[in-house]
Amino acid sequence: MKRNILIAMTFGLSLVAAAQTQVTEFNPGIAANGVNYTLPKTVLKVDASAVKVVYTPGEFAKYADRYLHLKGVAVEPSTTWSVTSLSVYQEGVPDTSKVFTVKLKDKTVAPMVQLTSSGILVAVNTHADVDEHTLPDVCTTHHQMDARQYLTEDILSATSTSKMAELTAQEILDIRESKNAIKRGQVESMPQDGASLKIVLDELNRQEEALTQLFLGYADTTFIAQSFEVMPTEDIDGDVLFRFSRKLGFVDADDLAGDPYFVSVKDLHTVVLPDEREAAKRKIEGLVYNMPSMANVTISTMSGSVYEQSLPFAQFGTIDMLSPTLFNKGATTKLTLHPATGGLVQLEQ
Is 203 part of any domain? Predict the structure, then answer.
């Protein structure tokens, strides 16, 4: 998210004097002359987009086959939902077990540090762009046309629905015949130029579409998206991410009216983790960053996989440190970290 906080301690952009910037583990309640920052845990986010189609049958739907030879026209209203796309990405949340302080020694000046609004370190001595993910607004498109304005006096005065449908069908056929005659140049008063011809044909097309809608009906469409997330602390094997019903749309994860979308996350162990003895001996002597481990992410339905990709996760990896000498006096080191994993993105000297 682009709600970033730039902190330039004592207005410095690089370290001065002979002393080095010191990084220590953060101890709550102990005042430190420095900048506290956190490293992230990685959250897997899935934005699911869906469309709802509400079909309204036409007033003359049951006569569509008889008068216009339109087969299979539905005569009952219906509502159907379908998932159109899945957007899979990652975000970082503060890991309270990985809080550190960029601590200053006397007469030193700190580098410029960029943190997110939740305190996650993303850049040192430079600026990092942090992607912002927002769900699109619900959007409904209406497709009903005003066909009544095109009904002739004979149609409106008909004494039965069947007769109205018959006369309307004849009007549609007359419009089609008029369009063909104009295109062939077989009318007495042809439009004078191409622009005029287009205006006439567009109007005839609108009339035909509106009147045909009285037989075929119309469908309004609503586009909607929902976001789902999981933060694995260990392998996940086929947990229900969300459920989706073709009649109801998104439903609760325990609502059996919806078909399940499953998520699996399997750590690939691409990073060697230190054992307990090594971890206990580790001394914080430089700027700490994450070394995330890759994990295989799969999203599937009862019909099979719909998404599969290897992604980095901070909590499956370990931490490492950059040498304090990188930020000595006169150094121009620039560092960017991934906001979702805390891993190195770029290191420039």
Answer: yes
Provide the domain count of the chain. Answer: 1
In this structure, is residue 73 part of a structural domain? yes
Domain that holds residue 178: 51-79+141-221
Pick from 279, 330, 339, 241: nearest CA to 17: 330
Q: Are 293 and 344 in contact (CB under 8 A)?
A: no
> At residue 83, what is the residue type?
V
To which H or E segment does residue 267 belong? strand 259-267
Cα gap 20→322, rounded to integer Å: 13
Cα distance between residue 126 and residue 102, in whole Å:
16
Q: What is the largest CA-CA distance in the chain?
A: 100
- Neighbouring CB atoms inside 10 A of 320's CB total 15
Q: Are strands 22-25 and 34-56 parallel, antiparallel or unpaired?
A: unpaired
Kindly state whether residue 71 falls inside one of the protein's structural domains. yes
- DSSP annotation string for 290-348: EEEEEEEEEEEETTEEEEEEEEEEEEEEEEEEE-GGGGSTT---EEEE-TTT--EEEEE
What percentage of the chain carries pLDDT values higher than 90? Answer: 64
- CA 239 – CA 253 distance, rounded (Å): 10
Strand order in 121-124's β-sheet?
A: 4-8, 112-116, 121-124, 334-337, 344-348
Place of tokens 């004592």: 10
For 61-74, what is the mean pLDDT?
96
pTM over 0.90: no
- Compute the distance between CA of residue 205 and CA of residue 328 in angstroms, rounded to an integer: 75
Task: Report whether pLDDT(244) > 90.
Answer: yes
Taking the CA atoms of the chain, what radius of gyration do you get in angstroms? 33
Backbone CA torsion sign across 334, 338, 342, 345? negative
